[in-house]
């Protein structure tokens, strides 16, 4: 029997409702930069590892979430804040909680005045990250801390020597660290991290003499890089322990792109003539010319080849996270590629092809070498990017398509993970090769409900098509927040159509649909219904982007649009007050109300069975939606 509402906090009540509905995961998606910071530690960019980051994670757990989905955590460049263009092994030094470097945990190697200066001189405002300011400031602070550590260790300081020993132990087991630290030395020497602009001799793997020369000349740079990666590893472990104690799982992000840091000296892993992009689709008719490198299928099994590279990467991810989101899994199974040397990237990506499905494409004769699908298995009546292009595959062909994806799954199993711990970011396109590989591993896809077509009953984004193993969400880091979407529906006159659709999904009986549809035309009720829809589908996994949690109208990222605000939106320092204020306006996610509406959508018998739980949910709801 349920305890009375006075004996249970929101976390207990929400998680009880999730169990009743069969929801296995309720995860908040937030990238490192978006975390809030305490005033005394705010350097202009968020981090989960700060005092403010840990406190926010506790707040998320209090609401009833059971997981956090991070974005990619790699090192980015000064001119590009996108985490999806960051390094895949080294973490971003912008995520270091600098305040801890002034504490005994890290031998007090950072003078507190350095942090104070960085905080005091930060540009005004905490709603967006000040990326360039934080980038320069963190690099400087890390260099000063590392130099202080080296000087104290050389002087025989016991605390510094103990810390140096811990760093050496960490470096000895991080096989990727030598490569990335030498890259940092070369970037310093040549004044750019774009290795394509370096002298020819430094673009490939270095000989022992050149490496020794760099290690001697740039010892300070290399030491600072090693120290920074050590700190990030230690702070991540501490954060993971903190959230685990509160019942929060951590999910990493396997970005499909690789940074220049990752591709330097590893040219043998990639095709030289083709790069990867996103194909044209219903939601993006032009496609997207990402320019990401493509693994060369001819070298998959070579020593230090693509499979070895991906295995190392996956083992690192599963050592750090409880699960992983696979960004654009098509890139591992059936990548869309285009001419790497074309003059117009936009035109090239639109005229691209799938790497393994072009046995006789006159525009791409070179791709015949890599074809898995045969000509008779292709439908020439549809475009090369269409989901229906490949209409038949044999088991041995699915084996071939699965070569890279299987590395992810095998690594997950080796680390004790379950298939439910692998999230596949399949959006508007899901061609047969990808469907076959995902079916082999019994993995679900994403259903982004704000994108659901109201005119096509077969649209994959509609929640009635969600399978139990799918993940449902209103939006993600690349979409508009819910409130902007609802505003747009209002301006276009399409609110009534959406309200009618949601009434079909949420009404407890057909006789109540018409009345509910009229109710949902109210903007506040429409927002609540959009959240309730997530919990009313058959999907057992729900993902919420942080901007929608707070009812924000700010866009986190506009894909394909270069703007300074991209990737900078943050949770405000006064997030508890901000959340409550937005909740009372009917704009933020009211979890108890959304769950109660989803439970009532199950019908009168289900409602009676869980009457006490519904009473507790209603008591915590700002708005009650009687479906």
UniProtKB/TrEMBL annotation:
<dbReference type="Pfam" id="PF02446">
    <property type="entry name" value="Glyco_hydro_77"/>
</dbReference>
<keyword id="KW-0119">Carbohydrate metabolism</keyword>
<dbReference type="InterPro" id="IPR017853">
    <property type="entry name" value="GH"/>
</dbReference>
<keyword id="KW-0328">Glycosyltransferase</keyword>
<dbReference type="GO" id="GO:0005975">
    <property type="term" value="P:carbohydrate metabolic process"/>
</dbReference>
<keyword id="KW-0808">Transferase</keyword>
<dbReference type="InterPro" id="IPR003385">
    <property type="entry name" value="Glyco_hydro_77"/>
</dbReference>
<comment type="similarity">
    <text>Belongs to the disproportionating enzyme family.</text>
</comment>
<protein>
    <recommendedName>
        <fullName>4-alpha-glucanotransferase</fullName>
        <ecNumber>2.4.1.25</ecNumber>
    </recommendedName>
</protein>
<dbReference type="GO" id="GO:0004134">
    <property type="term" value="F:4-alpha-glucanotransferase activity"/>
</dbReference>
């Amino acid at each position: 029997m349920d305890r009375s509402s006075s004996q249970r906090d929101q976390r207990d009540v929400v998680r009880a409702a999730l169990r009743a509905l069969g929801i296995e995961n309720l995860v908040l998606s937030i990238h490192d930069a978006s975390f809030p910071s305490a005033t005394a530690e705010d350097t202009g960019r968020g981090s989960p590892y700060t005092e403010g980051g840990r406190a926010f994670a506790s707040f998320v757990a209090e609401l009833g979430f059971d997981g956090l989905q991070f974005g990619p955590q790699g090192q980015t460049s000064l001119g590009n804040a996108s985490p999806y263009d960051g390094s895949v092994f080294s973490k971003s030094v912008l995520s270091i909680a600098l305040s801890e470097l002034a504490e005994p945990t890290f031998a007090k190697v950072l003078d507190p005045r350095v942090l104070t200066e960085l905080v005091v001189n930060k540009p005004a405002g905490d709603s967006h990250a000040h990326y360039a300011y934080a980038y320069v400031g963190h690099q400087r602070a890390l260099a000063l801390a590392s130099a202080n550590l080296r000087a104290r260790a050389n002087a025989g300081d016991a605390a510094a020597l103990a810390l140096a020993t811990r760093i050496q132990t960490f470096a000895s087991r991080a096989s990727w660290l030598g490569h990335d630290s030498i890259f940092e030395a070369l970037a310093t020497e040549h004044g750019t991290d774009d290795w394509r602009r370096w002298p020819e001799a430094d673009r490939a793997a270095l000989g022992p003499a050149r490496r020794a020369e760099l290690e001697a000349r740039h010892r300070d740079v290399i030491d600072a890089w090693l120290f920074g990666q050590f700190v990030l590893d230690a702070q991540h472990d501490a954060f993971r322990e903190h959230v685990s104690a509160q019942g929060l799982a951590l999910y990493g992000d396997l970005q499909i792109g690789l940074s220049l840091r990752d591709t330097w000296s590893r040219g043998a892993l990639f095709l030289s003539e083709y790069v990867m992009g996103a194909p044209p689709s219903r939601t993006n008719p032009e496609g997207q010319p990402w320019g990401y490198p493509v693994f060369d299928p001819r070298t998959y099994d070579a020593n230090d080849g693509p499979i070895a590279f991906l295995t190392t990467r996956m083992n690192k991810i599963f050592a750090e996270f409880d699960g992983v989101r696979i960004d654009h899994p098509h890139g591992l199974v059936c990548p869309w590629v285009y001419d790497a040397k074309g003059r117009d990237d936009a035109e090239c990506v639109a005229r691209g092809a799938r790497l393994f499905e072009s046995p006789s494409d006159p525009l791409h004769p070179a791709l015949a070498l890599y074809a898995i699908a045969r000509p008779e298995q292709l439908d020439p009546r549809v475009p090369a990017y269409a989901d229906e292009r490949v209409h038949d595959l044999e088991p041995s062909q699915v084996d071939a398509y699965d070569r890279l994806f299987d590395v992810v799954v095998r690594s997950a199993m080796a680390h004790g993970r379950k298939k439910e711990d692998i999230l596949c970011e399949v959006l508007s396109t899901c061609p047969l090769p990808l469907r076959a590989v995902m079916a082999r591993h019994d993995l679900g896809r994403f259903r982004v409900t704000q994108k659901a077509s109201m005119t096509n009953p077969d649209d994959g984004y509609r929640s009635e098509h969600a399978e139990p193993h799918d993940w449902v969400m209103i939006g993600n880091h690349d979409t508009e927040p819910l409130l902007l979407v609802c505003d747009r529906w209002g301006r276009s006159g399409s609110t009534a159509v959406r309200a009618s659709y949601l009434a079909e999904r949420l009404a407890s009986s057909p006789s109540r649909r018409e009345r509910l549809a009229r109710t949902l035309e109210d903007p506040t009720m429409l927002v609540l219904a959009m959240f309730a829809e997530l919990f009313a589908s058959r999907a057992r996994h729900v993902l919420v982007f942080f901007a929608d949690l707070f009812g924000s109208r700010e866009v986190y990222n506009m894909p394909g649009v270069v703007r300074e605000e991209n990737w900078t939106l943050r949770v405000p320092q006064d997030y508890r007050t901000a959340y409550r204020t937005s909740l009372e306006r009917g704009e933020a996610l009211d979890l108890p109300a959304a769950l109660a509406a989803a439970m009532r959508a199950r019908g009168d018998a289900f409602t009676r069975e869980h009457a006490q739980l519904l009473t507790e949910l209603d008591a915590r709801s700002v708005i009650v939606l009687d479906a």
